[in-house]
Amino acid sequence: MELSNLSNSTRRTAHFLITLLTALAGGELFMLLNLPIPWLLGPMLATLIGANLAKQYYQWPGQVRNTGMIIVGYTIGLSLTGSAMGEMARQLPSMLLMTVLLLLFCAGIALIVSKVSGNNYKTILLGSIPGGLTQMLVLAEESEDINLTVVTVIQVIRLMMIILCVPLLIFSPLFGNSSTAGDAISLTTANPATWNGLFPNILYFAVACTFCGILGQKIKFPTAYLLGPAIITSMLQISGLHGPRLPSLLLNAAQLMIGVYVGLLLDPRKLNNKVLTLTLAVGSSIVLIGGSYGLSSIFAYLESVSGATAMLSLAPGGMDQMSLIAHEVGADLPTVAGYQLFRTFFMFFAIPPLFKLIFRERKTQSSTAG
């Protein structure tokens, strides 16, 4: 029986299951190949290919994506511990200076890439800002005149370049480290999260995070389903309620929920000058890593920290990955986590309203000039 002959509800369920199976296959393939963030990029790529071959059979409700974002927001809120906040407060001026310099550097790269590629500056800027793949894609989706495919391509390439290149750089003789990663205890396995440890506290956090995500969306809070849960989780933890860490299965599921949604939004046909755009994305990522290294040299001099600590603190990658590398090379883990966390929250709170304000002003000026 063809799917077109089924009822609407049955057909939607069938399309959802086809999409889910495709995403699971993509995630498993990325796992087998030991590729970075497999449960985000694997489902994203698999559904992208599947939907472009047979778009009529693929469907992914927005509510599922929102659930994934609530889970990610909760995990971000868990990172805002007392020790992390203390470290952030002590080095706040330095953190702010380095973060602003890194953003200005990214803005300069985006200006050059937009001129060469022919894409609008707004799109390239969102692709270049190291604010986290999920956050930037959500902001891109909420903004006008944005080519989501270009933003995703640049962000994914940047993220993969960071994950692949920064460890090689840190373990190189440039930082005086040898490849001793195998001798270290992984931060993610030293104290694994268990299902039994979730209850009953996870129920309180689940209700609070869901409520704040929905409320934030209604009042048009930027990236509401991420920020709402992150904020309430931090507040509940500070008030004394323990937030349990989530098992890897839930975190992988959240990445899949988001990855599938993004994969179905992408349309390669909207990617103008494919070879040029990909080449510029790789080139700009290399320049960004070089700029981060330059800023880390300044940071190491100002704060009297090791080169590895400075580089990992400023590397435009994920906090989890950078903290793990810091653990393995003996860098100052609280400093690395503090800087990465500060940049994450700075991107969350400052970039969305600032981005909208700047381009609203430019649009107003253009209308007035016209």
From TrEMBL:
Membrane spanning residue stretches: 12-31, 37-54, 66-86, 92-113, 156-175, 195-216, 223-243, 249-266, 278-302, 341-359
Organism: Paenibacillus borealis
Source organism superkingdom: Bacteria
This protein's record includes keyword Acetylation: no
Protein name: AbrB family transcriptional regulator
Keywords: Membrane, Transmembrane, Transmembrane helix
InterPro entries: AbrB_dup, AbrB_fam
Keyword check for Cytoplasm: no
